[in-house]
Structure formats: structure tokens, C-alpha cells
Amino acid sequence: MRMTIRIRTVKMIPVNAFENEVLTLARIYANAESLALEKVAKRVAKGIDKPNYAAFKSNELRMLREELTPEIKALTKRIPKEVETVVEAAYREGQASATRDIERANKLRRAGESPIQKGFSVTDQYKVRAIANELSDKLTSTHFRILRQAQDAYMTCVTNAVSVAQTGVITRREAAQLSLNQFADRGITGFVDKSGRSWSLQSYTEMATRTSYRQASLEGNFQRMIENGYDLVMVDAHVGSCERCAPWNGRIISLSGRDSKYPSLADATADGLFHPNCKHSFSAYFPGLSKKSEFKESEHDRKSRYDETLKQRKIERDIRHWKKRETVAITDSEKEKCKFKIREKQANMRAFIDSTGRQRKPVREQIKRAI
What is the C-alpha separation between 371 and 367, in angstroms, rounded? Predict the structure, then answer.
């Protein structure tokens, strides 16, 4: 679905605080997946203890499809607008960041009120439109899979509930619960990136949005710098970087690649900087005026902090795992088990935060959230 980018005033979003903007879109899809889980569990559980359970399940499948289809259509209508807002805001903030850097440099070299090329040109519109269209296409392409996998999961649950229960080993409800658990654990899946890696729905949407947001921010910064005749930027430095981008902490790069003293942006990107989910950005660098980064971090400290990040993400996934299980719980024992496990994993998170001093991010522990 294509969109028209309009020149307008938008809220500026700090590049170093974009997490909420990225998670806004991810939460929309977390909500969509949670809704699918809930509706499948509800339809599977309906009449499950009645003797003629299998007889009316095909009608329930139709009703499931009728319930989910409007939700998917609403999602398809909503996403391009959400994407447009996020991408354009990121691009404009990238521009604003470059403008602030140039203004500071002008003051340092006593250039007075040297004119700075500003505005939102046709070129800027084109760049924003290209990034927004690409992200919108990626996200909306997942919608059919949500509906299809929900229907497939429903049929699997019903079939297993009927066939397994006939053995007399477990009840029909217990058999259905096993299949529902498998659906919750698996979630909506099958999204593959350019490198061939497979992602879950929520992880894929977060990765794709984070990558496009960062791209838009960098493009806005890059374009403003080029318009004003500047070429050098310095990569920001932060603790706990991954192995791929740690070597680029505080490095100076040439956007165009024309300055042979420094590696080019293309070189840095090819080496792994600004990879999907990368949190690095850059700021303008002016020889003789800008202060070079003095950031230093031992390899041991870097790896330790990075491992802490991975551990926190793991605990967040554990919490979401059991919340998804709770969404499809149709037996009393499963409901109690889920409540216990959620409390246990949340206690693990509190202990981890206390021991490391890291910041807890409750939004990353949610499977559904009002937007």
C-alpha cells in the first residue's frame, strides 16, 4: 500500500530515545497476535465438553474467520499511517540533529549567522516515501499469515482434541490445551529477513521498524550535512556494544567516501555498523573544532554488558512466553501454572535488575498493550 508524504510540522523525536516509537508498532502486532490467540482458544473451548463437539466445529471456524477478518482489515488500514508518522519524524529529527551540529560549529569558528540550508525538500520527501513504503510493505505482508495461521491452529486443536481424547488417556479439553500451548509457544511465525533468518511476528515487526527508523534518521542527517557541504561524522559510542559495531565506537567516517583519511559510510555499513537492531547513530565532525571521542571500554566490560543485555531480553521473552500461554489457557491447571510461572519470571527480572543496576523496561514484558 503506497502513501503520499505531506510537508507538515511533526513532533520531533530524539534519535537517542526512539525506543518507544519503535515499540509502538511492535505493540500493535503483539496485540494482533494476542487477539488471534484469544479468539482461537475461545472457539476451541466452546462446547468442548459436549458429546457432539466435532459436529459444529466447521461453523466455529467460519465464525473465527469472520471475527478476525475485520481486525486484519483495520490493521492494514492503520499501519501505513503509523509508519508514515514514525519514519517522517525520524527523518526530520535526523535533519534537526545535523542542523544543531552545524550551528555549534559556526559558533566555534565565529562564523556568525552563516546561512544553513534547511527545509524539507522534494528530495527529502522522496527519501521518506521510499523508506516508509518499504517498511509499510514489509509489515502489511504479514497480515495474511496472521489470519491463515490462526485458522490452521484452530483446525489442529480441534482435530487433536477429538482424536487424542478417543484414546481415553486424557480428556478432550486437556488434548486441546496441549495443541493450544504449542500454538502459543510458536506464535505467528515464518517471517524471513534478507539474511535468511526466521523471525516471530513481534520480533520481525520490531526489527523491521527499528531498522527503518534508524535508516530514516541517518538519511535525514546525511542529507542535511551534504546540503551544507559537510562530509565527516563521528559515530556515537556507548557501552555494551555488540561485536559487529564495537570497533566503530567513536570512529570518524566520511559520508561520501571522498576523504581518504577516513573510512566511508559504505565501508562501515559493510563491516556491520547500522545492522538490524543496531542502536548507533552519528553526529557531525568538524576537524579542529569537534572533540574526538575518548570513550574506552575493555573487551571484558563490553562483553559483560552485552551479555547482560542478552540476558535481560531472555527474561523478557520468558515473561511474554507465559503470558501468551495464559492467553490460551482453557483448563484450571494450566491457568494456575501460567500465573505461577509469570510471577516466577517477574521475580527473576527483579533480582536481575537489582544485581546489575540496569533499567527495567516493562513495555517489553507485555504481549498486549493499549496504544
Answer: 12
Residues 6+ apart with CB under 8 A from 300: none
pLDDT tops 90 at residue 356: yes
Residue labelled with grid coordinates 496472521: 146
Three-point CA angle 257, 262, 264, nearest 5°: 35
Report the share of the chain in percent with pLDDT over 90. Answer: 44
Nearest to 249 by CA among 182, 193, 203, 295: 295
Q: Which DSSP symbol is given to 28?
A: H
User: Closest Cα to residue 352, out of 323, 321, 320, 316?
Assistant: 316
Average model confidence (pLDDT) for the chain? 85
By the 8 A CB rule, do 44 and 56 touch? Answer: no
Q: How far apart are CA 292 and CA 222, in angstroms?
A: 19
Rounded-to-integer distance, Cα 10 and Cα 315, Å = 36
Alpha helices in 109-121 (DSSP H): none
How do residues 166-210 score in pLDDT, each as one tens digit? 787 889 999 999 999 999 999 898 787 777 778 888 888 888 888
- CA atoms of 147 and 66, how far apart (whole Å): 10
> How long, in residues, is the chain?
371
pLDDT of the residue at 200: 85
**CA 227, CA 234: separation in Å to the nearest integer?**
18
State the distance between the two ends of the chain, measured CA to CA, in whole angstroms.
22
Check if the beta carbon of residue 324 is closer than 8 Å to that of residue 367. Answer: yes
Consecutive H or E run containing 192: strand 191-192
pLDDT by residue (tens digit) across 108-156?
776 656 678 888 989 999 999 999 999 999 999 999 999 999 999 999 9
Question: What is the per-residue pLDDT for 50?
Answer: 85
> What does pTM read for this prediction?
0.80
Identify the burial level of 302 via C-beta atoms within 10 angstroms of its C-beta, where 0-12 means exposed, 13-18 middle and 19 or more buried: middle
**DSSP-derived 3-state class of residue 264:** strand
Q: How far apart are CA 219 and CA 236, in angstroms?
A: 16
Residue 34 C-alpha cell reads as 494476542
Q: Indicate if the pLDDT at residue 55 is higher than 70.
A: yes
